[in-house]
Amino acid sequence: MSRTGSLRSQVEEFLFREAALLDEWRLDDWLDLFADDARYVVPSTDLPEGDPERDLVFIDDDIIRLRARVDRLNSRHSHRESPRSRTRRFVSNVRVEETGDGELRVSANLLVYRFRSGEGAPYVGAIEYILRRDGRDLKIAYRRAVLDLEDLSWHGAVSIIL
Amino acid sequence: MDIKDLIVDDRDRGVFRVHRSCMTSADLFRQERERILDRCWIYLGHESEVEAPGDYRRRTVAGRPLFFIRGKDDQIRVFLNSCPHRGAMICRRDAGNAGVLQCFYHAWSFSTDGDLIGVPGEDAYGPHFDRTEFCLKSPPRVDSYRGFHFVSFNPQAEDLVTYLAGARDYLDLVVDQAEEGMRVVPGSNRYTIKANWKLLAENSLDGYHLVPTHRTYVDYIAGFGTDDSGDTVSARPPGVAKALGGGHCVSENISRNGRPIARWHPIFGEEARERIARVRRRLVQKHGEERTYRMADTSRNLLIYPNLLIMDFVAISIRYIEPVAPDRMEVTAWHLVPREESGPALATRLDSYLTFLGPGGFATPDDVEVLESCQAGFRATEAGWSDISRGMLNPCPGTSDELQMRGFWRQWHAHMQGRDRTNVKDR
Ligand code: FES
Ligand SMILES: [Fe+2]
Fold first, then answer.
1. I need a surface site. Which of A131, A159, B135, B179 has the fewest CB within 10 A?
2. Which residue lies with its CA nearest to atom 3 of ligand 1?
3. By the 8 A CB rule, do B404 and B241 touch?
4. B225 — contact with chain A (CB < 8 Å)?
5. Which CATH number is A3-147's, of 3.40.50.12780, 3.20.19.10, 3.10.450.50, 3.30.70.2740?
6. Is B110 in the pocket of ligand 1 (CB under 6 A)?
7. pLDDT band at B233 (very low <50, low <70, confident <90, very high)
8. b/e per residue, B340-354, with b = 16+ CB within 10 A?
């Protein structure tokens, strides 16, 4: 296998494991994938290139707020996800680029079907990561989910982790 | 059911009930369009969304496709987004800049002030063809107040300032917070709620639901501690709710949480403390202690009847509700910030917005859920009525009382019966 090929399969393995943790709602385990200085961003649907320092976005979490988000989602008082929706996510078209400083710039396509209250619809978009080597494993330093939807429509909210 | 019986309003017994068909009936929804949305002033957009000549924005307002554009003379004009020739949409993007507006069907072109300036093969129309008959059309009434632009499809509508009644002072209280005026930051949050639009008008003013529905948010904020140093706030009376006349209502709270304008909270971080104190000194200098207190230490959820909310608490959100069907609304929210804020001050404010507000925040998803839950519950038609009586016998209603929601409903009921204004002093 070529060098990029094996690097890609290592990254894919990581992304697939992450997807499984989210679909299984093992959010505390999912949090362990993040570096302490990580950031999680979801821009607004009408401004996919949105920058949380200047623009209105849906989500801009540092690790503290990300932990709080997980605490909230774990609580039965997080009403939009209590009872939890069923989700199934498909991660594909993975591309990996090594940056000089030992980090990996990763992009992938994202499709998450979400079912709840007798209905279901997909979130469709692209997901970008900066992954950092951590011994033999990887850590998420940056994670940005960019929706292709024109508005949140049926979902009414970004109530799950995208 | 007769329209006059849809609301029970018994002030002696303190009973206020709304029949749930108000949220489910297709007939009433159609009548609402005619009697309310087609008669009132409806929010269109903010001046800062079109900063440069030629900048335009497309909107759907009370069902109509519209756009507004800043002309070369700096005037903002509003047009129906439909070609006077045969109807195609002139403006086919949500936002952009244009020197000339050209329809893509037969390529007629219009100036940014709406004049027809180009017709391919014009001679074929003969000598009586008159370009002035084919200018872009505007809604019957267009007006603005301090940067907020509204339209009305009612040619007889009273002027906007009269219409705003007591809500005007509250808008001032928001706009005056800025030194150099307000602007809307790029990006908007758009989402659908499968519920009747009036439920969100109600919910946005409802202080009673805050703790039970938004417990995870309340816990999250409590985790940061509070700033009670030199706290003058606890000595003040609790929040108030008011009907401001014409269906406009406000719920005004003493803020225990942070206000990016001039009330520091640990969530903003130590480095923000001095900066926020400076803004406060500036406000006091300009507006005096009492008004600064209101701007900085109180927060307000303001309903501009029928379907606009200005939510001024953790940040300032403009929230527009477009009714789409009896059981469906489309919501657009924007973030309004003082123009002079940039860098760390702006970052603090943008961050504060996202804690509560927005469909990815720690509270709004729960509101979406609760409204859809009510709407689904209404299918149990035997249940009949919803109760909005809380605090009706209280002589000075607080924000957990429901006077503000009754104010909205009383105006709605009056309009639906073909009457005009409700009494400002309603309890
Ligand atoms: S419809 Fe616009 S030019 Fe014909
Ligand atoms: Fe709420």
1. B179
2. B106
3. yes
4. no
5. 3.10.450.50
6. no
7. very low
8. ebeeebbbbbbbbbb
